């Protein structure tokens, strides 16, 4: 990894990472009392203010629940259900009984204003990929993605014919939160050509940004032919 991408982890983040890992691994169960702030102070050799910040931020993220006079607990499992499930397109295609393949169009470093803004960088460059995803050789999704090189330094070395960006990234750094929007939009000529759409046909567009810790991990726009795709779900 380039030394330019190496960044010291703040002390409070070390506590957050430890607590999050304990929860994700199942070591600490939903509704279970976690160690007190004093115990965490002793374990990490940190000040009360630092540990308190970590616990407070995890509470704001709804991973923890603080009960006055009782202690801090792992939040109930319903926290997970408040997040939109992020499924990899290849899993979705195969689950519906179709054959999946992809065509990688772009895999590069980009320093354009749009690329930097997508990840929240003021300078430098980010990684950019564009991929068409197929079900039985019919294009169903055009993925235009910007990715944080500090979190995924080997992104450009991946073969995204063998695995999707989603599969790769969750193995490296599982996301902590996500924001998304879904809208109907008319595609430009380039997107229409990649998805083999008729002139005048609208697209269903999912725009999503995800975070790992306090950094934007990836910002992606997913275009789908309106006549060949629908979003479904439940909670």
Structure report:
- The chain is α+β, with helices and mostly antiparallel strands and 235 residues long.
- It has 2 domains: 3-81, Arc Repressor Mutant, subunit A (Orthogonal Bundle), CATH 1.10.10; 89-225, Chorismate lyase (3-Layer(aba) Sandwich).
- It has helices spanning 11-24, 37-44, 48-60, 78-81, 89-95, 113-119, 165-172, 189-194, and strands at residues 64-67, 71-74, 100-110, 126-135, 138-147, 177-185, 203-212, 215-225.
- The strands form 2 sheets. A 6-stranded antiparallel sheet has the order 3-4-5-8-7-6. The chain has a two-stranded antiparallel ribbon with strand order 1-2.
- The two termini are 40 Å apart.
- This is Histidine utilization repressor.
- It comes from Paraherbaspirillum soli.
- InterPro entries: Bact_HTH_transcr_reg, Chorismate_lyase_/UTRA_dom_sf, His_ut_repres, Tscrpt_reg_HTH_GntR, UTRA, WH-like_DNA-bd_sf, WH_DNA-bd_sf.
- Keywords: DNA-binding, Transcription, Transcription regulation.
């Amino acid at each position: 990894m380039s030394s330019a991408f190496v960044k010291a982890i703040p002390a409070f983040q070390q506590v957050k990472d430890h607590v999050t890992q304990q929860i994700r691994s199942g070591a600490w169960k939903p509704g279970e009392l976690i160690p007190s702030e004093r115990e965490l102070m002793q374990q990490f050799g940190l000040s009360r203010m630092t540990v308190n910040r970590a616990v407070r931020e995890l509470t704001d993220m709804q991973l923890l629940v603080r009960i006055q006079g009782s202690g801090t607990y792992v939040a109930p499992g319903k926290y997970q259900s408040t997040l939109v499930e992020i499924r990899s397109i290849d899993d979705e295609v195969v689950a519906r009984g179709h054959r999946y393949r992809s065509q990688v169009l772009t895999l590069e470093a980009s320093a354009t204003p749009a690329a930097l803004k997508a990840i929240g960088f003021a300078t430098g460059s980010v990684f950019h990929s564009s991929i068409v995803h197929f079900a039985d050789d019919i294009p169903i999704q055009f993925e235009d993605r910007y990715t944080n090189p500090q979190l995924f330094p080997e992104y450009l070395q991946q073969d995204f014919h063998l695995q999707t960006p989603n599969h790769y990234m969750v193995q490296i750094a599982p996301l902590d939160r996500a924001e998304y929007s879904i809208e109907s939009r008319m595609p430009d000529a380039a997107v229409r050509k990649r998805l083999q759409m008729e002139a005048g046909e609208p697209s269903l567009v999912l725009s999503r940004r995800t975070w790992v810790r306090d950094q934007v991990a990836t910002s992606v726009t997913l275009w789908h032919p309106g006549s060949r795709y629908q979003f479904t779900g439940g909670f």
